[in-house]
């Protein structure tokens, strides 16, 4: 049985979603996600142990239906999503900045995943000038996490540069310095392909939303509940509709 506290939280977030994301608001869908949300809050569940990307439930449902074996995927940030993609697509490139976490993911992949993609470790570099950079600036190459102040993620964001334009069916941005990752990856999405950004409601990701407005991209808003969190958030996918990259 759900606790009164959890019901109150879900109702609070329900009303906030209706106000902030009315186009993504669906009463029936929100009701159907509640049991999964409650289950995710118990025990030691995590995206890593559940082998799923840590995105909202609407986004997870969309990805589950959309992915297929002929797809090429690039992801910034490894973890449960790495298993999820590896089981569903042909080729996966996974980029990780944390060596301890990368080793953990690699070991789990070795034991549990028959289609084992490599996790490419691209660590940030110390840079005194980066301490003054704006995490909202695609040219800043910095994380909004204060613990990474004074570190540049330039190589991390640029790790996709070696691939041809329009190469990937899906680019999944759920790691560090996301506006900078977007800057380097937007042209790598093929026509009909998808660019997915998690936590898209954060103010310092507004550049991404603004850059993809217009006729070249179709926005899909998957705001709503997701696992492990006591709040609703926004995962967005943009589908590329034209051979033009739409890069500003």
Description:
The chain is built from nine helices and nine strands. With 248 residues, it is of the alpha/beta class. It has a single domain (4-240), classed as Vaccinia Virus protein VP39 (Rossmann fold, 3-Layer(aba) Sandwich), CATH 3.40.50.150. The strands form two sheets. A seven-stranded mixed beta sheet has the order 3-2-1-6-7-9-8, with helices on both faces. Strands 4-5 form a two-stranded antiparallel ribbon. It has helices at residues 4-20, 27-40, 47-50, 57-66, 80-86, 99-112, 154-157, 178-185, 206-211; strands at 72-76, 91-96, 119-121, 125-126, 151-152, 168-173, 189-197, 217-224, 233-240. The protein is globular.
Distinctive features:
single chain, 248 residues, alpha/beta, Rossmann fold, seven-stranded mixed beta sheet, two-stranded antiparallel sheet, 9 helices, 9 strands
